[in-house]
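Re: [help] complex structure
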Amino acid sequence: KNQVEQSPQSLIILEGKNCTLQCNYTVSPFSNLRWYKQDTGRGPVSLTIMTFSENTKSNGRYTATLDADTKQSSLHITASQLSDSASYICVVSPNTNAGKSTFGDGTTLTVKP
Amino acid sequence: DVKVTQSSRYLVKRTGEKVFLECVQDMDHENMFWYRQDPGLGLRLIYFSYDVKMKEKGDIPEGYSVSREKKERFSLILESASTNQTSMYLCASRPGGRNQPQHFGDGTRLSIL
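Output below.
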């Protein structure tokens, strides 16, 4: 069964600090891995998307890495801001049925002043 | 910017009612999706559509149906609403091609009393 596990479940950091969120998956065959940010009461917004051949992708202060051999990804947030407080969701798509991606349960990040 | 619009942010209905949730996207995307999001369970796929009048079951289609008569509009129907269908419903669209991000609406929080 395809699974995506995210850790930690929740995280509290001080404004200006860096943090790293983890995503481990068992989805196979692999097509792509996406990170989304979901603010409270809003829909998820895409941060990065990586295919098998990509091992890092940046979007401003967000940098995602992918190790397709160990089936692990991380999302690193640099110099956190209060607006980074959100849920971060890892999504992995197989290289088969294009519609059935597997979603992680998300990591809830709280940035405090 | 891609815009995915869901007709209602909040909706309250009674058990047994037929409920329609509407979703419209403005970017001519081929693929559209309906998810529900519950605490601790992440996003779960209900139905998706890869073309007009085409639909595929997701992971939890029971108690739901969908309609896609026009490319830009994807409707989710609860045939006879039940209390266990109280949830946040998210619609998404995606262009053709597997390695593209999904674009989400802001969700409809549906309560069934």
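Chain B touches chain A through 26 residues (CB under 8 Å).
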